[in-house]
């Protein structure tokens, strides 16, 4: 256990991103829904890869990106996720540990390869993801280390963990350990179709108090409550979860806590290259802000700052020190 | 053989770049000479990788980058280089073929892994390279396909091919095939220390007429002639090679052909993120210009345009269509 508690333990699918710019008609021609995540098998992965353009690779995965954001802010983060003992797994582990993130999950040996997501970036900066889960299918409850969970102020879990069957058991075990240690549990809803696949289970996680802090974007939250109205969804979530942070793209975010609904603007930018990681980095800033006892509003502003950095370049993790950017923007970290 | 000849066949080390931003003191602390390429063994690769920060990966290699530049300009290019049958080799092959480059070299099976270069990018945009050659050591003369060489207006070879011993035989065979088919041969000097390792052989290549078109930057050319004076080096090279294109960083380039010495300015830019690929993309523009019967000066201007694109972002290959950028800049391709 570290001398200081981790600002967050992030648990999620350990995925290497394979990113290429593309035109919108490629999405249409391949039956892809823009801005969402598609789960694909090995065969589909091969076909799609053969069709896509030249790419670059970087470690990604939603919760992994959030851990990298917290580390870039100067915080301490741990990560639990499953890679294979292959070249991409080596890259992934390197990128986490080189960022100062504690990452002790044993690799999968002799099984499926490290997960990869083919991310197609359209000229508007929107990203459309095609994920082959590979080794992530083997993340299970035995990968959850109680001491690490207990050492983290908050355990942050991605909704995507509901896709590989054993991982949801890991999720529940982590939540139990966290609450037993008097820590908090946070969930991001990840993707509107992921919400559609697991709506009842996600609602149960909120209503049972398994989740203390919820992250969602507007389409995910509306999907959760099957409503076209964001206001209706916010009215619903304030009864279901103690604290929610809802991102609404260029309109910033909305922090919902009981009767308080606070709107926080985004950081204005003309430089949107690649939206990959925007929500993940918002969560990093918000969670780090809470860990540093900031007000909800300041935490949301820090989230917006972190998200703005990551959408200004290709790749899902910060290219510059968020700690330095936050200091320039007047935050006292 | 293609219906239309290839604008160029590029032959070089097939390398995946592993790129990380770093501070200058990391270079000093690891005994690295800024702006140059260091050859490293597997053990050193592991040590250095463990010490470097989070990275992103992209297909690179000097000649491979040049082929990608020609393809991005709308030209036709072929590539010969050796990857292994591993994950990085799969990425490399994909990135070449997805760019429209003919790449038929058989992969190395059961041998060393695909080559990788750890590229450290300092805040000034300079890159310092640390290359583990791996499978490139197995490129040999049997990998040179005579029909492909004969189909290319020019066969472009990197000086780095002199490092893996069998590759220099491949180089010589390719040059022979090219001249037998009435085609031209071009060489880039690659790196001042590479020139230092093989000075006599490179001079022999020029003086014997094996090389028709030479690319070098100022430090490489001065290294070739062991002089501190660029003017002296230019005076020397105009006797040794029919046509030379010498890049001089922000001062543009100098085209040397017999008694003609033409200076061509760089494209002014404040946006230098990463110098990786600058020389490779200059060569792409220049060779493509020659293939399209441009004047030497216009070909050098096209080279400058291509170089400016690639230094504006992380990664050694164009992120935008060079054909579109050239059209915007008034080139008629």
What's a concise summary of this model?
2 copies of one chain form a homodimer. The first copy, chain A, is α/β, with parallel strands linked by helices and 333 residues long. Helix content of chain A is 39%, strand content 20%.
Structure description:
2 copies of one chain form a homodimer. Chain A has a 9-stranded mixed β-sheet, with helices on both faces. In chain A, strands 3-8-7-2-4 form a 5-stranded mixed β-sheet. The first copy, chain A, starts with 7 loop residues before the first strand and ends in a 5-residue tail after the last helix. Chain A is an alpha/beta fold and 333 residues long. The first copy, chain A, has 12 helices and 14 strands. In chain A, helix 8 crosses helix 9. Strand 4 of chain A pairs antiparallel with strand 4 of chain B.
